[in-house]
Structure formats: C-alpha cells, structure tokens
C-alpha cells in the first residue's frame, strides 16, 4: 500500500499478550504528538469486550480509543477495523468498521473471515490516509507475531508490517520472567525478511535500577544485532488494563479508603473501563466479587456490563450470589447496574431470537431477573450504538455524557406499585427505585457515566451520607482531564527511558 505523503509507519509488537503493547503504543502516540507529528493509532484486529462507540455510532476497542486520545485525535472505528468480541463457547461476535457482521467460531474463523477481514483493514487504512495525509501510522500488533499455527492468516502482525513497510519495536515484559527467552525465541521464529523489520527492542516493567540490566542489554544486542532502545520501569499508575484478566491484579488494599464498593466480576464482563474513574477515587476501595464468593456487606454494589447477560445472570443465581444480592438490597443496600447489569436487576429478560447463545426453544432463553427493578427486557437484533448526553434527576441534577452499546430494549412495567423514577431527562437511559423495603436500586444504559465528575461525586456522597461521612466536593472536571494527565505522565517516563530516534531515522 502506498503511504505517499505520510511518514514511515511504526509498529509495536509484543513477545506475548499482555506485554504492554497497548500502553507503549499510547506513549509513542503522545510523544510523537509532542514532537509536532500527527500520530494515527491503528490495530487491524483486536479481541476485546472492552469497547467504545465513536461519533458515527461505530464500535471499536477501548484501547484504540485511548491511543487516539493520546494522539490528540477523536477516536474513530477505522482505527480498529476488525473487532472480535468473545461470547463463550469458542465463538465471537465479528465487528467490521464499527458494525456487527456476524459470529464466528474459533476453529473456522480464519477460513471464513480472513479475506473479508483483510479487505476492511485495507479500506480502513485508505480512509485514515485520506483523513490524515501527512500523519504517521502507529500500529499495534496482537498477541505474539510468531504463533506458527496462525501466522499464515494473521491479519494484524507481520502481514500488516510488511504490507506497510513499518519499522517495528518488539516489547517484552520482564516482570513475567524469561525475558531473554521471550526475545530470542520470537526472533528465531521470524523469517529473514521479517526480522529485518525489527528496528528496536524494549524491555517493559523493569523493577529496580536500570544499570542492573546493562549486562543483559549488551548480551541481547550482541546476540540479536538489534539495539535495546529502552528499559521501561514498573509503573505504579493505574493505567487502563488491556483485558479483564488484569483487573484482579490492579490494586491491593487501600488503607485510606472510606467506602468499599463491591463490583461483580462477571464471567463475560464487558466495558470494565467504566470503573476506571472509581479506581482513581482516593477514598474508594473497589472489591471484585466473582460468582461463588461471599458478597459481604459493602457500602454499595455495582453490576457492570456483560457480553452474555443471560449466561452471567444464570451464573450469579447458580452460585447463590443472586440471593445474596437480593438480601443485601432488601436490607437497605445501594445497587447500581450498568447496561447488562441493569437488565439483570429487572423482572424478566427474554431472548426470542437466541442472540445470547441459547436456542429459541431453550427455556433459558427467557429468565427471571433479580426483581430489584420493575423493568422487562427483550433482546432484539438491532444494536443501540450512539454517543449521548442527558441531564440526571438522581441523585441530583448533572449534565452527563457517555454512550449506549446494547441489544436489549428495557421497558418500565406499567402499574408497578414501586416508587420508580427515570434517572434522567431521557427516560430510556435508566431508572431508580426508592422502594421502602429496599435500598436505592438504580440502573442505566449509559456507559461512561462515572467519567462525569459531578455525577460520580453526587453518587458517592449518597453512599457517604449513609455512613455519616462528609460530602466530597462535586465541582470536579470530567475524568478525561485526569486521563490526559495520566497519558502525559506515561509519555514523560517513556521519553526518559526510551530512545525512539533510531525508529524515526530515514
């Protein structure tokens, strides 16, 4: 592909999943932006249930949205043209250029979807080239680039690197152990023409003084002929995790926390980035609760989004966590459901088209909810995908923004005796119940609601008052400003410890 007018693309590869490709790509984007360039993040194919909806109503991976913000750009789904959303039973929903185009089984994916996937990747590159004629693509690979069983039809690593003649940076995570084997093993599996693309090595998550790795650096450079351009230190900052497997490792016990919020770690957890703003609150301790574990008596419970709502609801009920939740609510506890979490709080969930993985004749295709909100949900083929804003009425007035991303259509049950109010001026986006027999039970379809600083603090203050704690200030900015500070600190560390000049040399 011709990239006339554009600077030579850069690509961040990893020796494995979780090596830090996403954050290093974000850091590279921010550093290039500081140098006066227009970096354009791109990941041909991503697999994630942590999604974002762009201004056009297109679905994309959250990690590419984060990289777009790092690049000073508005996220657009062309930056992640192929998104696979796992939904259990070795199947994934396939998203092409922001829209769902079907489902695929793991064993047949590359036979059935390789050509369409490569086609939309090329189309997305053309679209970005037209939009940013003098930009520089910053490409992120996926997993390892040398999975020999998949390499022939790999859509997003070396095929893309060769197609664009990208200069590649290979990232290895020293925290995992075996960093020398990771690097040497990866390079040994590359073809000579592929190895020529690797212009630098990056050691990530190093603890201690960098000079302690000098001997290792020299050995690697002598053994591979490739410069080690940087050793990134271990970062204590709470950067967004690359996948849900990182959630339980993010933060230990916070001694200065004043309230504890339990978050259900659902088997098909999605959009867990919704919780990032709460993770950043210094007075809040998040405790992730898996089905089969004890809920306890937290100050509030959040049921986040789910890619497989009925399956996750079934798991909650089977593990007794559902009964614990009902008992907790009936004793005056605060419960907030987001998207699929709100659907679970309702009375019934029906899936007549089998969109949740059940057959239409399966009794599980229609289930009773937790019966904490008087709403019924029916899953429909069309997906709600839009950025939106609303003025909340609960806990108080606040202008909030976010996005919808769901199949289900929820309706308030008419004639309900419960005291239920719309959460906001758009009544389709959520409800709150103030039933005397329960605590305050609320649900919303709005992803990103906690990013809105005033609303987040209003909700936290509701919980704090019940504990006799003083209110927190509510005149705080959108979490996007805090995210900007985080990205700047990431770029500061990256610039200090990584020399990218060899990647940029013509």
In words, what does this structure look like?
By secondary structure, the protein is α/β, with parallel strands linked by helices. It has 14 helices and 25 strands. The protein has helices spanning 21-34, 62-70, 109-131, 158-164, 179-188, 192-195, 214-224, 276-279, 309-318, 321-330, 340-345, 453-466, 479-497, 501-504; strands at 10-14, 39-42, 45-47, 51-53, 59-61, 82-86, 91-96, 99-105, 136-140, 167-173, 198-206, 228-233, 259-264, 269-270, 284-289, 300-303, 305-306, 334-338, 348-350, 366-368, 375-392, 398-412, 420-422, 430-433, 441-444. The strands form 6 sheets. A 7-stranded mixed β-sheet has the order 15-13-16-18-25-24-23. It has a 6-stranded parallel β-sheet with strand order 2-9-1-10-11-12, sandwiched between helices. A 4-stranded mixed β-sheet has the order 3-6-7-8, covered by helices on one side. A hairpin with a 2-residue loop joins strand 7 and strand 8 (99-105). The model has no long low-confidence stretch (mean pLDDT 92).
Radius of gyration: 24 Å
* CATH superfamily descriptor of the largest domain: P-loop containing nucleotide triphosphate hydrolases
Q: What is the makeup of the main sheet?
A: 7 strands, mixed
Would you tell me the structural class of the helices and strands? alpha/beta
* Strands ordered across the widest β-sheet: 15-13-16-18-25-24-23
How many domains comprise the coordinates?
A: 2
CATH architecture of the largest domain: 3-Layer(aba) Sandwich
CA-CA gap between termini: 19 Å
| CATH topology tier name of the largest domain | Rossmann fold
Strand content: 25-35%
Number of strands: 25
Number of discrete helical segments: 14
Enumerate the spans where pLDDT stays under 50 for 5 or more consecutive residues.
none
Helix content: 25-40%
CATH class of the largest domain: Alpha Beta
Integer average pLDDT: 92
Q: Judging from the principal axes of the Cα atoms, what is the shape?
A: globular
């Amino acid at each position: 592909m011709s990239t006339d007018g554009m600077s030579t693309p850069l690509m961040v590869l990893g020796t494995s999943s979780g090596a830090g490709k996403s954050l290093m790509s974000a850091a590279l984007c921010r550093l290039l932006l500081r140098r006066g360039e227009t970096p354009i993040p791109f990941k041909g194919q991503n697999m994630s249930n942590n999604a974002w909806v762009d201004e056009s109503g297109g679905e994309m991976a959250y990690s590419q949205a984060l990289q777009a913000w790092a690049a000073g750009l508005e996220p657009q789904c062309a930056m992640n043209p192929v998104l696979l959303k796992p939904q259990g039973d070795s199947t994934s929903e396939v998203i092409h250029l922001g829209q769902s185009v079907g489902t695929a089984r793991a064993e047949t994916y590359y036979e059935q979807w390789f050509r369409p996937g490569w086609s939309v990747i090329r189309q997305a590159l053309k679209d970005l080239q037209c939009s940013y004629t003098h930009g520089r693509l910053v490409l992120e690979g996926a997993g390892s680039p040398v999975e020999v069983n998949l390499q022939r039809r790999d859509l997003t690593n070396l095929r893309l690197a060769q197609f664009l003649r990208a200069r590649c940076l290979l990232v290895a995570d020293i925290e995992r152990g075996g960093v020398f084997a990771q690097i040497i093993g990866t390079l040994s599996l590359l073809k000579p023409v592929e190895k020529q693309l690797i212009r630098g090595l990056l050691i990530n998550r190093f603890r201690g003084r960098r000079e302690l790795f000098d001997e290792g650096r020299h050995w690697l450079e002598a053994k591979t002929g490739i410069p080690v351009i940087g050793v990134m230190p271990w970062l204590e900052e709470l950067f967004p995790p690359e996948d849900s497997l990182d959630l339980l490792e993010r933060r230990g016990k916070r001694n200065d926390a004043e309230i504890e919020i339990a978050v259900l770690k659902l088997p098909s957890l999605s959009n867990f980035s919704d919780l990032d703003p709460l993770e950043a609150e210094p007075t809040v301790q998040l405790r992730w609760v898996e089905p089969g574990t004890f809920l306890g008596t937290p100050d509030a419970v959040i049921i986040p989004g789910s890619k497989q709502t009925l399956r996750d609801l079934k798991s909650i009920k089977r593990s007794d966590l559902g009964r614990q939740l009902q008992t907790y609510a009936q004793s005056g506890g605060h419960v907030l459901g987001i998207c699929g979490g709100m659907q679970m709080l309702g009375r019934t969930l029906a899936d007549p088209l089998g969109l949740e993985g059940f057959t239409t004749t399966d009794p599980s295709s229609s289930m009773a909810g937790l019966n904490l909100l008087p709403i019924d949900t029916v899953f429909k083929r069309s997906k709600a995908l839009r950025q939106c804003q609303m003025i909340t009425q609960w806990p108080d007035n606040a202008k909030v923004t976010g996005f919808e991303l769901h199949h289900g259509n929820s309706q308030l049950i008419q004639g309900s005796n419960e005291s239920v109010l719309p959460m906001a001026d758009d009544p389709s986006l959520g409800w709150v119940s103030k039933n005397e027999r329960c605590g305050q039970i609320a649900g919303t379809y709005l992803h990103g609601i906690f990013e809105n600083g005033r609303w987040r603090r209003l909700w936290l203050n509701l919980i704090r008052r019940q504990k006799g704690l003083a209110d927190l200030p509510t005149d705080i900015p959108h979490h996007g400003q805090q995210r900007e500070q985080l990205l700047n600190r990431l770029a500061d560390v990256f610039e200090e410890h990584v020399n990218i000049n060899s990647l940029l040399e013509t």
